[in-house]
C-alpha cells in the first residue's frame, strides 16, 4: 500500500512525459500537452514546403533521439506498457491512464505464485512479477499455497484485494511491495 517517495516521483514523471492527452494547441499552433521535444517534431507536419518539412523532421527527430539517449524521454511499446501495469498492480496510484491501461482490466490480475512464506501466522506470497502480497487471514478452509499455484487478485474496498488461490474462496490481502 505504501509507494516509496522515489518510486512515486518516477511514476508521476513518467505519467506526465509519456501519457500526454491528445495534442491541444493554443492560438499560435503551439502544442503544450506534449513534452517540448515531441511538440517540436509535431510542428514539422504543418510546414507546406517539402524541403523545409524534411529539414525540420531531420532536425527534430535528431533532438528526440538525443533526448532518448540521455534518458530524458522513454518510448515504450504496448508489451512493455502491459508488463509495467502488471508490475504496479496493487499499488494505490492516481487515476490516470498510465501506460495505456483501461480501468476494467486493472481490477483483476491472474498470475503464478513463485514463493510462499508466513509472517505472523499469515501467508505471504511472492508472484511471478516479483511483487509480494500478504493475506490478512488464513481461514481453516484455505489449502496451504505453494510455488506454481495459480492466483487471482481482484480489487475489493478500501485498498484491499480478494486473493483467490487455485480457485478457492477468496481471502482479503494487500500488496506489501
TrEMBL record:
Residues 1-24 form the signal peptide. It comes from the Bacteria. Keywords: Signal. This is Lipoprotein. It comes from Novosphingobium indicum. The lineage of its organism: Bacteria, Pseudomonadati, Pseudomonadota, Alphaproteobacteria, Sphingomonadales.
Amino acid at each position: 500500500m505504501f509507494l516509496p517517495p522515489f518510486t512515486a516521483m518516477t511514476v508521476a514523471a513518467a505519467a506526465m512525459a509519456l501519457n500526454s492527452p491528445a495534442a491541444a494547441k493554443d492560438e499560435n499552433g503551439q502544442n503544450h500537452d506534449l513534452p517540448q521535444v515531441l511538440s517540436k517534431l509535431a510542428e514539422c507536419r504543418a510546414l507546406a514546403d517539402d524541403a523545409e518539412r524534411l529539414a525540420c523532421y531531420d532536425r527534430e527527430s535528431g533532438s528526440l533521439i538525443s533526448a532518448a539517449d540521455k534518458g530524458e524521454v522513454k518510448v515504450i511499446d504496448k508489451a512493455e506498457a502491459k508488463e509495467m501495469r502488471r508490475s504496479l498492480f496493487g499499488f494505490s496510484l492516481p487515476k490516470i491512464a498510465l501506460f495505456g491501461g483501461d480501468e476494467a482490466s486493472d481490477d483483476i490480475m491472474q498470475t503464478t505464485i513463485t514463493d510462499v512464506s508466513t509472517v505472523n501466522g499469515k501467508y505471504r506470497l511472492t508472484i511471478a512479477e516479483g511483487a509480494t502480497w500478504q493475506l490478512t487471514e488464513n481461514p481453516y478452509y484455505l489449502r496451504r499455497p505453494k510455488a506454481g499455484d495459480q492466483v487471482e487478485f481482484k480489487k475489493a474496498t478500501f485498498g484491499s484485494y480478494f486473493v483467490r488461490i487455485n480457485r478457492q474462496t477468496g481471502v482479503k490481502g494487500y500488496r506489501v511491495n
